[in-house]
Amino acid sequence: MPKKPEDRPRKIHQRLGYLLVCGLLGVQCTLLGQESDPLVLSAGFNIVDNSGSRFNELLNVTENWNTARNIKIAVEQRFKYDFGAEAALSLNKFNSGKKINSETNSGDLNYLSLDLMVKNYTTNYYQNAKRAWYEGYFTGGFGANLIGRELAKTLNFGFGFNIKINHELRINLQTMGKFSIDSATSGNANHLQHSITLIKWI
Description:
By secondary structure, the protein is an alpha+beta fold. The protein has 2 helices and 11 strands; from the N terminus they run αβαββββββββββ. The protein has helices at residues 7-36, 61-64; strands at 39-49, 65-66, 68-79, 83-94, 99-100, 103-104, 109-120, 134-147, 150-164, 169-180, 191-201. The protein starts with 6 loop residues before the first helix and ends with a strand.
């Protein structure tokens, strides 16, 4: 039986409807994928404590904290909210008069570090990661730290918090201990690094 002419517009409308539904589903799947596995960019400041006092003078800002030329940038790939892999670059400077390994530094030393870290967002195990106003994590990895002219390879451990501003923006606070894994490196390699950065999800 031949098809009626008025059936053709109906067929076209049906096909357009199918294409629209499929397109919407595809966009939704893409957005959900980006939401669960976002790329995170961050920029801010870092503080290096290389005084050698371990945990006895953590808040001795005047003598122990190095804050000159203190820049930190990082990129992190999140995985299902619970995990992250990060590469971070930090610049700083040890000014003369600051303590290095319990001794007063007599000259300026430049500081440059590259850290490759993994993170586990432990607060996601007991709260809704999409609605929580903060998230806490533990982090660990390896670092290459150029202190003056000496390259120090370190094993890094630390923890941090992300405080939510909105869905895309957060403030990050992190403290990390860096411990030498190279027997040829002097004790200058062991140090603490604190940072505060503004992070953006993409």
